[in-house]
């Protein structure tokens, strides 16, 4: 896995002055991307194409993530805001087109079909998530489940290309890695009034909080002090930490089932940020 250089290769498709000077782009999902590359590199049927396959998957994911940053509202009519909005739409389209171009040039038509199907599943999961949000019927558990589905679906598209034991282990591994990633982001969202809205904590309180707390949350009447009080009152950090540790332990068990041993060792190194967070949270709980 020492040959991993996807971020460097991707720069030739993402680092354009017009984009860099006028807007920002989502980062490549580093842990998911490295896990994908590690699995593909070790698979007998894919190994030689692992870099290309990981690159196109990353570009396609960046395209979707970039489109997700485009506000559905167009209240800001300023020229700068309008340009940024347009660039994000165009950048997302561009990354997606590169996915098609690179695979077409290499003759990997089957992977175009698989990843296009995966994209459809991602969009289907997004629509389910957005509709439940709009109707106010989304529970915190459903929010996490659908968020994991949205982020994992593209990687699951590779399952039919994997061989032997890798094909058996891949879906569960993707699910656990993505769950850890999503929960960790939700933990960080608890510290931001702006990001808290419509995250795990928001939906937990909407469904299980008192009438007064629900009303204050929906009316956005909270300041940071109030937010911290509600996070403590509803044990939001503790609940997410418990879920994170459970998923991380299951992930480690799954990784130890991987063969060869070099793959297992490499995967544990990739998910090291998860282990460090678990260790840090356990220390804080003891204080």
Description:
It is a single chain. With 287 residues, the chain is mostly helical. It folds into two domains: 1-107, no CATH class; 119-287, no CATH class. It is 77% helix and 0% strand. It has 15 helices and no strands. The protein has helices spanning 6-14, 17-22, 30-42, 50-68, 79-106, 109-135, 140-156, 164-189, 193-196, 200-208, 211-218, 224-233, 236-256, 261-270, 272-286. Helix 4 (50-68) packs antiparallel against helix 5. It is globular and about 60 Å long. The chain starts with 5 loop residues before the first helix and ends with a helix.
Overall residue-averaged pLDDT value: 91
Give the % helix: over 70%
Main beta sheet strand tally, sense and closure = none
What is the radius of gyration?
20 Å
Number of discrete helical segments = 15
**Domains, number:** 2
**Category from helices, strands and their pairing:** mainly alpha
Strand and helix order: HHHHHHHHHHHHHHH
Cα end-to-end separation? 38 Å
Residue share in β-strands: under 5%
Instruction: Please state the overall shape, judged from the principal axes of the Cα atoms.
Output: globular
Low-confidence stretches: none
Number of β-strand runs: 0
């Amino acid at each position: 896995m020492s040959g991993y250089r996807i971020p460097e290769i991707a720069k030739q498709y993402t680092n354009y002055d017009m984009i860099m000077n006028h807007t920002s782009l989502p980062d490549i999902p580093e842990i998911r991307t490295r896990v994908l590359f590690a699995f593909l590199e070790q698979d007998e049927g894919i190994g030689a194409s692992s870099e290309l396959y990981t690159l196109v998957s990353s570009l396609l994911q960046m395209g979707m993530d970039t489109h997700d940053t485009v506000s559905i509202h167009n209240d800001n009519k300023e020229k700068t805001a309008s340009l940024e909005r347009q660039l994000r739409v165009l950048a997302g389209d561009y990354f997606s087109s590169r996915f098609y171009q690179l695979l077409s040039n290499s003759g990997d038509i089957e992977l175009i079909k698989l990843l296009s199907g995966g994209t459809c599943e991602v969009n289907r999961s997004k629509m389910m998530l957005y509709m439940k949000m709009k109707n106010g019927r989304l529970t915190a558990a459903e929010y996490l489940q659908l968020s994991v589905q949205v982020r994992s679906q593209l990687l699951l598209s590779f399952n039919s290309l994997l061989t032997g034991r890798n094909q058996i282990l891949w879906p569960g591994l993707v699910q656990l890695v993505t769950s850890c990633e999503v929960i960790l982001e939700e933990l960080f969202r608890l510290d931001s009034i702006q990001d808290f809205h419509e995250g795990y904590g928001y939906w937990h309180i909407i469904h299980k909080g008192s009438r007064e707390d629900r009303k204050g949350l929906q009316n956005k009447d909270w300041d940071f002090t109030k937010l911290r009080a509600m996070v403590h009152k509803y044990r939001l950090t503790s609940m997410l930490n418990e879920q994170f540790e459970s998923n991380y332990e299951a992930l480690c068990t799954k990784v130890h089932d991987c063969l060869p041993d070099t793959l297992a060792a490499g995967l544990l190194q990739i998910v090291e940020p998860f282990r460090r967070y678990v260790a840090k949270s356990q220390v804080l709980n003891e204080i």
